[in-house]
Each structure stands twice: as structure tokens, then as C-alpha cells.
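To the team - FE2/S2 (inorganic) cluster complex, inputs and output below.
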Amino acid sequence: MTWIKAVSLDELQRRPVVIKHPPKQIAVFSLHGSVYAIDNRCPHEGYPLAAGQLSNDCVLTCNWHNWKFRLDTGECLIGGDNVRNYPTKVENGHAWINVADPPAEESRRRILDGLKSAFDDRDFGRICREIARLHYYGLDPVESVTTALVRAHDRLEFGTTHAIAAAADWLHLAGSYKEDFETRLICFSEAVDHLADDSLRQPEYPYAEPGAQRFERDAFLAAVEEEATDRVEAMVSRALADGLHWPDLEEAFTAAAFAHYNDFGHSVIYVAKTGELIHTLGEGVERVLVLPLARNLCYTTREDLLPEFKDYVPTLAALQQAKGLPHSSAGPDVPFPAGIVKAFEWLRANFGEYGVEQLYDRLLEALALNLLHYDVSYGARSDGPVSQNISWLDFTHGLTMANAARKLCARHPQFWKPALAQMACFLGRNFDFIDRAVDPNEWAIADTDGFFRDVHQKLFDHGLRDPIFSVHLLKTSLAVQEESEHASASCRKALLTGLNRFLKSPLKTKHVRRTARQAINLVSRDF
Ligand code: FES
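Output:
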């Protein structure tokens, strides 16, 4: 029984009528001899559409925020979400309404179209509503993230961004809250919102079609080294067209990420997160993830070319000669604090003496202590040179890169040497910006489980509009949570303490005066 007898035409001609068909409320209108039925709750904020103003050309205006809907189709003309309309018929002086749900595929298409509109506008409210609709129509809300990845991937001029890495982390978190739809909705909406933000107002930057050259590891690495973006994309497109999958490609992409101290560790993070996303979402997303990653590797900044990291290449060469031992009973002391020279010396002195996992643990502890001791005055001041534009985010990268590197090295142990050398780079870079006066006891964590419960709650209501900041809370928290399960007791303590101070400290998200002042300092020099 999907047709319900709604109201007499006589009554309907006097005024719109609201029919209750729990849990639905349906507003029924009569205009020019036709009957129309739509959801009474406005899809914007739920106020009653039956109270709206109906024009002679069949457009209904919601009184609360002036959204306008076509009554005959449900299309939203001004505002955002469309409203559901229902088939009607008239029999024996009464209006009837068909309340049957449309076929699942039709609902799915309609909701995903709505999600794409919300994505293009970066309309967070509508993103949440459309994903909630997927859930309540019995569809899979994870598809919102896949849809957003497809929408975003060829609008990323320089390839993979934090938004893609964040999607992996949000999906990971959602997986821990299977019975809690509100929390899952937050995770999916945050992932979609960040992808929308990173591709907002971007034109399309199509990827190269499959080329004549088959994917071959060394040729791929050489092309990345030459920053030959088109050639790299064509080769990777060809690999996918030839039926290769991420497990066939991961080692080559990992090698490219570790070929330099790339983009302050981001390349390593992006390779690891790409693999995690493909693992979660399946082979269907390989193309929209692997091509942006290939492009990113071509455009990435090679930080080892900067003067402060000039010892990176010789240090790595020295490590390549040495043999790391699998394990020894006690590790070396934690190299904290350490400038870049001391950090490299420490690594060279200890590499042949201790296993790579022990060295990793010590370097990770040192990076966690770095985070704990970040001198917040650098993030607050407006009068420093550009080289001192150091924020919390610079300090979190050491931990997130290390976390990604450990997971990649577990599958590809040949990359432990550059992984450790790059951790030493972070140590050296952070050295000038630490505050030795920070008291670790003030930030110590007694209850680890309770701490991470609170951390998750903060992530689910972080209050930061700009995703570049919320993503750093997210990825640092998840990296610390994962690493604390593997780390030595002292390293774990440092990780939790450092994260605690980071999350409880103010984050300045815009530096207006500093930016203006540095602009004047730069530009005025040439006049
Ligand atoms: S509630 Fe209808 S326009 Fe806002």
C-alpha cells in the first residue's frame, strides 16, 4: 500500500495541508488544478515548507532563509539541497500521495549528485546532510569519500595533497566507530570537506594518457628524477592500463619518495597513505590515487638541496656502506637535543652498532621530545625573518613522516637508511626552535586509554575551519597512537607527553602582521 489518501480537494484549495505519515511529514499543495506533495521539513534546516509562499509559476519559497523550490520536481532553485517530491493523483474528490521510496539506484544517483554540488561549493552543512541521506536510504556512506576522490583527483595541479592523506586517516578512525553513525558521519564529512577545499575553484588538470613506454622501475625513477611529469604520468597510466596494481608499484613509488629528503617528509607520508586508502577502498580508486601521487613526486621540493641539509647525501652514502645489525641488547642514548651535524654524526656512529628498529625508536623519541619542547614563541611572533616562520606543524611532521616510513620499511626494509637519515634531518632542523624550559611533568599522561579517548573527541569537534590545521591534529594523533603501540617505554612516554602539549596549546592559524611585515621587508629591498 504505497498510495495514501491524503486530503479532500475542498480542504486543499483553502490552504496547504500537512499529512503525517510517520516518520514523514508531507506538505500537500493545490495550484491551478494540480496537486503537489513534497517533504514538509525544509532540506536546509527543517522548518515547515507548508508555511512557505507559493508563486503562480509553481515555485515555493521557504520563509526562514528564502530557499526556493520547484514544487513539481523538488529542484532547489536558490539554496542548496533539493526537496523530495511525491507522485500524486486525484480520485473521487481526494488527493492521493504515493509514499513509496524510489529505487535504491535512483536515490543513490540523486544523493551523489547533491554531494557533488555540495563539494563544488565546499558547503559543509550540505556535505553532512547528503552523506546522512546515503546512510538513511540504506546506502554506503563510504561512497561519499570515493566520490570526492574522483571529483578532486584531476583538479590537483601538483598532485596528492594532505586531503588525500587525511582521507586515509578519517576512514581509519571511522572504522573504529562502526556502531556510532554520528562519529562516522563526522569522519566522512571531514574527508570530503578537505578534498573539496584542496580542489576548490581549480580547473581540471587532466593526466597523461597511457604512453608507449611500459612501466619499468628504473625508467620510472629516472623520469621522476628529471621531473618529467608527462612521461611519468604516461608511464603510470600505462601501468594501470596493463593491469598492474598498487602492490606491483609500491616499491618503486617508495624508492622515489626516499630518493631525496622530499618536501619535508610529505612524499613518504603520501606514499604510505595512498596504499592505506587503496587497501580500504579497493582497486577501484587506484587510478584516482596513483596518478596524483606520481605527479606529486615530480613536483616535490628536494630539501636535501638546501644548504642546511648539505650533509644528507654524504651521510646517506656512508650509511649505504655500513651494515645495520638486526638487534642488540641496549640501544644508544637518545640524540636530543641535536643540531643537524650532531644528528648525522650520531646516526653514522651508531648505524653499524645497533639494529635499525632500535635506532628508529631512539630517533622517534628524540622527535617526540622535540614536539614536547617546541618554543611556542616562534608561532606567536610577528617580527622574525622568514627562516623563523616555524610553527607546531613543522614539529609534527617529524613524527608523521616517521610513522609512514616505519610502515613502508616493514615491507621494504631496503629503505631504512634514508628513513633514519631523514628523521635525523628533522631533528637537526628543529634544534634551533626548542624550549628547554618546558617541564615534561606538566604534560605527562597517566591514563593512556583515557587520553586517546579524549584525543578522539577533540578530533571530532576540533573547531578549526581550515583543514590544513585540523589535518595536522588528526595525523599527528593517529601517528602517535600507532607508534605508542610499538615504541619502547621511554619513547612512548615522550610521544604521549609531546602530543598532549601540542593538542592543548593554542594554534595561530593566520599570521596577518607577520605576513605583511615580511612582504615589506622583501619587496622594499629592491626599491
Ligand atoms: S529552513 Fe528553509 S531555507 Fe532555511
